[in-house]
Amino acid sequence: MKKIALSLPLLSISLLNGTILEKDGNHLFLSIDNQLKSFNVSVATAPEQELQLNLDSRPLDIQISGEYLYALTSQGLSIYKYESGTTPIFLGKFATQYAKQVEVVANKAYIANYLDGLQIVDISVKSNPIIETFFEQKTAIDLVVDGDYVYLLTKRDGVIILDISKRRATFVKEFKVENFTSITKSGDRLYIANEYTGLYILDISNPRELEFVSRTLTKADKVVKTERSIKTLNSKLGVVETINESSSAIINYDEVPMITSFDSDGDYTYTLNLNNEIAIIDSDGKTIFSEGESSSTVNGTTISINLNRGWNLIGNPSGSAFDTGTLSSNISPLFSYENGEWIKNGITIPANRGFWAYSKGSTTVEFSGEPQELDLNSVDSSNWVLLSSGKELESSNINGLIYTFESGEWVKNPATILPAQGFWLKK
Question: Which contacts qualify for 241-248: CB closer than 8 Å, 24 or more apart?
C-alpha cells in the first residue's frame, strides 16, 4: 500500500483513547476508559463483543494463563477465574501503583513498574498474591521473561538484563539507549522499538554477552511478534510495517490514519483509531472490517449530520455564525482553526468553516439557517484552511488538495463532500 505523508496542521489532544491489549486465540482484548472489553474475532469480517468488565482504573495490560485472567491497572494486578464468553470471577489482587506491563509464567507474575522497577509476585494462591522479590530500576515500561532471565525495558536506561534463577533478581548487563517504547522476542533475538532512532535488534543467545545486531530506521512506538514476522506501529505517521526477521528489511506497510494501537497474529492486523473504532486488515493490506460511518441530510433550512463516538470533522454549513452553546454537553471539546492557530471551544464557528468535535457517543447535530454554498473564490487557501459547505461539492471542481476525515480515516480528494462535512483545502 502506498504511504501518504500528511502535512496537515497537527491537533494534539490528550484523551483516554482505547488500547488494544492482547490478541489471545479468537479473542481480542481492548482497554476503553476503565473497562476491559473483548471481541470474538473468529470471523474476522464480523467481530462480536463478548465481554465488558469494569475495573478500578484503566486496564494497561492483560494475560490469559490457563483458566485465569490477569488484569493490570495503575492500581495493581487483579486475578479472575475466566472462561471464554463468560463473566470473569474476581479472586484476588496485588496492589501496586505505576505498573505498566505484566507477564505471567507458572505461578509468578512479573511486573514492569515505572517507579519500582521489576516486581516478582507469587500468585500460587490466587486470592492472596504477595511480593516475592523486586529489583529497583526507575522508568521501567515493558519486559520479556525468558527462562532464567528478565529483559526489563526502561525509558531512561535502555534494556536491563536480570538473572532470576535464584530467589533474588540480580543485575547481569545493560544496553543503554534512551526512549525505548516496546520490546518483543523471537528466537535468540530481541526487537526493541524506539520512537526516535529506529528498531534495535539484539542477539541474546548468550544473555551475559549481549550483542548488538543491527538497527533499522523504522521509528515505532510498538513492536509485536507474529508467527511469520515482526510488525511495528508508528502511530504518529499512521503506519504499520512488517519486518523480515532474516534480513531485517521492510517487506510491507499499511496506512492506518489516526491509529492509536494494534496487534497482529500474522493473518490479520487489528487496529484501533482515535474514535476507539476497530479495523481489521488482512495480509494483503485490505481492510475487511471497519467501524463508523458518516452521513448528512438536508431538510429545508436544516442540515443534520451524524457524529460517531470520538473525533468528527464537521463544519458550519450556513451563511451565519454558528453558536456552539447550542450543542449537547456530550459534544466536547471543539477545535476550530483560524489564521494558522487552533481555537479551543470557541463561542461561535464562522460561516462555512470546519471544526473538530469530540462526541461521547453516536449522535446527530442539526444546523439551522439558510444553507450557504461555499464560495471558493473568496477563500485564501495558499495555506491549509478548514472549511465546510451548505451544498454538496464535487472535488473534481475544486482546485487544490483536499482531505476529509471519515470513519476514523483520512480520505484524500474524495469524490464528494457532504453538506456540513468539514474538510481541509490547500491550493
Answer: 243/191, 243/199, 243/216, 243/218, 245/186, 245/187, 245/189, 248/201, 248/213, 248/214, 248/216
**Whether residue 380 is found in the same domain as residue 356:** yes
Measured CA to CA in angstroms, residue 106 lies from 82, 118, 342 at distances of 17, 17, 52
Give the list of residues 6+ apart from residue 322 with CB closer than 8 angstroms, or none. 316, 348, 349, 351, 367
Residue 292's pLDDT band, with cuts at 50, 70 and 90, is low
Nearest Cα to 4, choosing from 254, 268, 231?
254
> 11-28 in b/e burial notation, b at 16+ Cβ within 10 A?
eeeeeebbbbbebbebbb
Model confidence pLDDT, tens digit, residues 359-395: 887 788 889 888 889 988 888 888 899 999 999 999 8
The tens digit of pLDDT for each residue in 32-75 reads: 888 999 999 998 888 888 999 999 999 999 999 999 999 999 99
Whether residues 146 and 165 share a domain: the answer is yes
Domain that holds residue 266: 19-290
Domain-located, residue 216:
yes
Domain tally, the chain? 2
Distance of CA 24 to the CA centre of its chain: 18
Work out the average pLDDT over 353-360.
Answer: 90
Please report, for residues 44, 134, 171, the alpha-carbon distance to residue 158 in angstroms, rounded to integers and kept in the order given.
37, 18, 14
Q: Is there a domain that residue 14 lies in?
A: no
Q: Contact 223/183 with Cβ under 8 angstroms?
A: yes
Q: Which residue has the higher pLDDT, 407 or 347?
A: 347
Spatial contact of 368 and 320, defined as CB atoms under 8 Å apart:
no
Give me the mean pLDDT over the 294-310 stretch. Answer: 75
pLDDT digits (tens, 9 = 90+) for 226-236: 888 999 999 88
Paired sense of beta strands 59-65 and 89-95, if any: unpaired
What are the residues facing 40 on neighbouring strands? 27, 48
**Residue 184 three-state SS:** strand
